[in-house]
Structures are given as C-alpha cells and as structure tokens.
Amino acid sequence: MKKDWAAATLGRSLFPRAEAIPQSLAMAFMRMMMAHAKFESEVRALQSTIANDLNYGEQPGNRWPTDKRPKRMVKLIEEKLGQIPETKAIEQLLQDAFDPTNQRNHLAHGIWWAFDPQTASIHVRGGIQREDEDQFGKYSEETILAIADRFETLEADLYKLRSGIGDAKESNAPSTPLAPPLSTSGCVRGALRYDCASQPSMMKRSSSALPLRSAAAAWYSGER
Predict the structure, then answer these.
(1) Max CA distance (Å), the chain
(2) What is the average pLDDT score of the chain?
(3) What are phi and psi of 141, to 5 degrees?
(4) Cα–Cα distance for residue pair 113/20, rounded to 1 Å
(5) Are 111 and 202 contained in the same domain?
(6) Could you tell me the residue range of the domain that residue 52 belongs to?
(7) How far apart are CA 170 and CA 30, in angstroms?
(8) Rg of the chain's alpha carbons, rounded to an integer?
(9) Structural domain count, the chain
(10) Higher pLDDT, 7 or 204
(11) Element (H, E) at 89
(12) Is position 203 within any domain?
C-alpha cells in the first residue's frame, strides 16, 4: 500500500486495508459492538417492564437519545410505578453510560483514517466539527476492550435493577382465584373430556377435546 511522505514520517498507514488491522483489534471492536447491543436491549426491556407493555421499548417515539434517557426514564417510572427504591440507581446508571456510548459511537461512525503499527492503534476522526469537542481519537485493543467491559457491567447491573422491579410488581399483583376441584366421577380424565351420566352437559369424547387446564378454565367460567 502506498504511503505519502506525511504518513511515512508519522509511521502511520493512511486509510489502511482491512488486512493491515490486527485480528485481535478487530475482535475487540466486535466484542464492544455486541456488548453495546446487549446493553441497548436491556434498556428497552427496562422501558417495557416499567410501562407493562412488551412493545413499549421498540416503538420509534420511545427510542430516546442517550443524553435524555436518565430524565425520561425517571419520568416514566414516576408515571407508571410512582416512587420506587430503584429510581436513583437507574438514573445514575444511565448517566454512567454516556462516556462509553460516546466512545462506541465515535468508533462505529467515525472515519478510521490511520493505523499506527507501533502501538497497534487505530486513529479515528469524527468528521463533524463541534464546538469544544475534539473529533480525533486513538484506540488500542486495550482501550476498546475497556469500553466493552464497561457495557457488560452496565448491562448486568441494569438487569438486576429491572429484575427487582419485576419481582416487586409480581408480589404486589392481586392473586388469581383457583378453579373449583374437578368432578371425580370420571367425566374428565387425562387430557380428554368424556360423556357420563353424572355430568350430562360435558362434551362427548372427540379429537378436539380440551386439555385438562382448559377444561378447568371452562368449568370455572361457566362455559359448560
């Protein structure tokens, strides 16, 4: 690969080919991307748990920007659950995700313009000039793995907080009354329902007979 004089002086390869990047650096990048994806999935799961809606976190209007998540998540918790002990920890965790998310985005969306073989580091340029922001970054394998580790820790901690909310919701939910005991006269046996003299309203045996649990539900609801 040709190098210009500036690149030769600096000892860097400008816009290197994929083969020039060490496999370990590429694997570190992939691990970071997968760890970030898992963390994002846990954020959506938390939204859905709080809202009691499995699709809530997947709706376009609820895909909040990283820097707005803490306040919006707190607002959602207060609207749906009121005051709960996990709120502060969730808010802090989402704030802690700012830095690794910004680094991940810089790596994923920036321009990989140079590779330094002496330090096995990739040089990334953001490509957008923002006030008070350095758009240049340098990432070694160790740096990228540290970002991945951070995401994995955040995801695990967020899962624990979400599980605590789910357990509390289940313990506070009203209990469902049990169906009355089924007849012991033999009208319901195994997975099928039978006709018998003591229960003339029961269905005759057929291939479409309901399983035992469905039979109990039908009995309780009066559909007999």
Answers:
(1) 100
(2) 80
(3) -60, -45
(4) 13
(5) no
(6) 5-172
(7) 37
(8) 29
(9) 2
(10) 7
(11) helix 87-96
(12) yes
